[in-house]
Amino acid sequence: MSNNNASQEQKTHFAPQDVVFESGGVKFIVHIGLDTSSVVNPPPGPGPITPVTPIPPPPGPGPVEGGVALDGVKMMFPENKKAKAKPFFINLNNPDENNKIFATTYGSKVYKFEKAPMKEGNIIFVRNNGAPQSYASGAPPGKSCRFHISAGGNISTPGKHSWKDKPTPEFVTASDVCFYSHEMTVIARVGKALGTHQSFAFKINSRPDQPDDTLRSTIEYCMNNDQKKTPYVNYNYAHAGYAGVDGVKQYTADGKITPDKWIGVKLVFIIADDKKSTWMGLYVNVDPITADGKPNNAGWKLKSEYTAKGIKEYPVPPVWGGDSYLRVDGYEHVDLFRFSQVEIEKGPLKFQEGLNVAPGIQFTLLPPVDEDPAKYNSPPENQPQADPTKTA
Q1: Peptide bond into 167 cis (omega under 30)
Q2: Are 200 and 177 contacting, i.e. CB atoms less than 8 angstroms apart?
Q3: Domain that holds residue 130
Q4: C-beta separation of 238 from 214 below 8 A
């Protein structure tokens, strides 16, 4: 005999809702399942009904653009002012003021900026000559600038977690004071090309290689240059194991890393609320500085984007917080006009499962880069590094 007083559970009903938003001149649609339980009458029954708390309707497009940051540069997304990590902006008067939070490194050594600041006309900037760079593969030596930001002051401190952890960790650094969903901005100019390996790579949400570089846990988004004609993405959770990807979209061919030319580049990294993916957007500004030496905010556009969901070699999506750095190889020096990292609000990109480009938006699907990036891993730090600028 059935129990007529048995409790019943109210069914959850979903209806689709499209959220349309624009970022960097590209329009997107997010297809969201909207919980309509609160507006559907439950079926009658003899027993009491256990109510299901309705999921609130998702937000509308909202203010996707974030206004102007403290350094005068336009942001693509609003700042998350509740974040544990404080925004970082380079101090052009003293870029090496705190090398626990920001430093140009090679292994455990810090390479200081030249006497700051420098000035050309109305443009004020800083310069770093980087480190001599040999490659474990024996490829011709070059130079490398690795601009590290660590919100928790943990640049050289081993991480507590990694991509190998189960369950997937919330963060991989020594503390949870790190960047999760964020916007990195650089306005830079590279010096003379050395005729060796060139790279301009955002290495995102990582941890130090020491003491175990198989736990690096990073993914990199790289700008195109004279050697690579389009942007590209590599998973690099283990130092020796780079894995390129298909599915990188390019919306404009504008912008590449060119010696002696200023360029603005942004990397936006947003972890989906369901932790099933991370969206990355690469933005460029080919005319980033005005005649009076101020940031030119009119020219920012979305160049490329990729949604990381994990791949065969690394099946876990990069959905943890960590430290990030910009690695620039192959040039005599690197000049910085602006360099920053800010935790951001996710906006509609908190939902990524149903993300699509709006109808009518043209893009090109890019293949993986045609090289093995592991060829350009560094040899052990205690080995002498060859400096190509000082050879006969």
Answers
A1: yes
A2: no
A3: 88-349+360-390
A4: yes
Asked if the structure places residue 62 within a domain, the reply is: no
Give the contacts of 191 (CB within 8 A, at least 6 positions apart). 259, 260, 331, 332, 333, 334, 335
Q: Answer yes or no: is 230 within a domain.
A: yes
Ramachandran class of 25: left when φ > 0, alpha when ψ lies in -120 to 50, beta otherwise: left
Q: Is residue 169 part of a domain?
A: yes
Averages of pLDDT over each 10 residues, the chain, 392 residues: 43 63 94 57 48 49 74 97 97 97 93 95 98 82 95 95 98 98 98 94 95 96 96 95 95 98 98 97 98 97 98 97 97 98 96 93 92 68 62 44
In a domain, 51, yes or no: no
Burial state string for 209-235 with b = 16 or more CB within 10 A and e = fewer than 16: beeeeebbbbbbbbbbbeebebbbbbb
Amino acid residing at 317? P
pLDDT at position 376 is 67
Q: What are phi and psi of 15, to 5 degrees?
A: -130, 145
Written as one letter, the residue type at 16 is: P
CATH, residue 214: 2.60.120
